[in-house]
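Notes continue from the previous slide.

Worked example: a multi-chain complex. Inputs as given:
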Amino acid sequence: MKYVALVYTNPGAFEAMPQAERDAFMREADAYLKEYTESGELLAGGIALADASTSKTVRGRNGLPAVTDGPFAEAKEQLAGFYVLDTESLERATEIVTHDPAARVWGVEVRPVMDEAGTEM
Amino acid sequence: MTTQAKVGAEDLLRQLAPQVLGSLVRRYGHFDLAEDAVQEALLAAALQWPEQGIPENPRGWLITVAARRLTDTLRSDQARRRREERAAALAPPDELVESPHDEYPAAEDDMLALLFLSAHPSLSPASQVALTLRAVGGLTTAEIARAFLVPEATIAQRISRAKQSIQASGVPFELPPEPERAGRLQVVLHVLYLIFNEGYTATAGADLQRGELTAEAIRLAREVRRLLPDDGEVAGLLALMLLTDARRAARAREDESLVPLEEQNRALWNESYIKEGTALVTEALSAAPLGPYQLQAAIAAVHDEAARAADTNWPQILALYEMLERLSPNPMVTLNRAVALAMVRGPQEGLDLLSTLDADRHVAEHHRLEAVRAHLLEMAGDHRAARASYRTAARRTTSLPEQRYLESRAARLGDLDE
């Protein structure tokens, strides 16, 4: 089964970290990605997102799409990136994500990916 | 290059791949490096044969080319690291070129040994599947990646890690000793069934690549059957695949929506697969010890034998599910037995059986429990409750076609009420 791990971080809090702590965090994140890519469970091609302040949101206004500056939702924690896991079960995917340093400091949401295939009902 | 020549060469390569690998591993060991060498030889052949014609002794050609690659690798390793005592005993390349015509007395044992090795219990199922398809099925990493909809780099990682862990564990390249063999064969069969299901659940149009996995699983199951003709579960698995795949053309509409079994156009079912599968399972059931694959195949055969859905012999299906549940108890089997029970003794008995599963945390949250409950509630005429169950099931499934199907059932019941 494939799962997307949506990584939420608080950019302000990350900037406020002492340099050494930030470096340690990044090293831990790199080691995490490497370990599970090598196990064949974390799929190649994860995406890191630029700061939420650089985004534009397109959403309906009076039935027509309108473009506004900034993220979809104003929140302290913003979507910082995502990666895809391919594991035997949701339990395994969740277990892997507990090792993501972002899950310790902020939060990572694990959601199943919808499949184009299906069995006879 | 004609297309026919290309297809002919590809089929031959897939067939020879495990024999060449087996021969190499038997001679040199180094399963991981040998597998790489064989892939390179297969690639060379895939480029050259359609242009230049298939050599007189294609297996000898492949073994020679692969052996040369392997010895080159081992030599450069040796020169670089001076660590390879085993490699010192290798035959010089000239000798290999002169005597490519190995005697292959053990080609069939090699194929089985490769299957057991690729489906080694120490590997994760995903790695077992990838390694089996490559080492035994002769598929390239790119083909496997396309079939499983994951990046090629990920499949390459799984294969390379699997090979390393086999190499490191020092598992000998031979058939597992007799006391372990039956258990290990179960793992091999499970891997083939995983491959089959990955292809079978893919719907018709968009995912033809994945559909080819069913053909590959059937091909490998036929090979195993040829090597172990007396094993009832091998016959049962092959029969189950054939009897299931027989319905392929009828199970999805052109818009890729799913067609439930009772609504399928049975004229589209594959008659020859049904005949072959039924004969296989009938013979196995009478001759070999009973096993879960044989029982599942027998159930599929009963469905496939009914000319119309209304002709289905549900009492027989119920009896088979009862046997299956005794043999390998599993909530998914109970779920299926509930459907059969409802068909034989009415929906309420089926619903009562389902309620025993609500406490089982493995299925309580599963969309299929709610989908079956919805179906039985609909049978019982409780449309309001059925609609709620269809909606819950639709929210829980992670399959888009299943979700669309379940939502349409819920909507249809809403229309009936108005």
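Summary box: The mean pLDDT of chain B is 88. The two ends of chain B are 64 Å apart (CA to CA).
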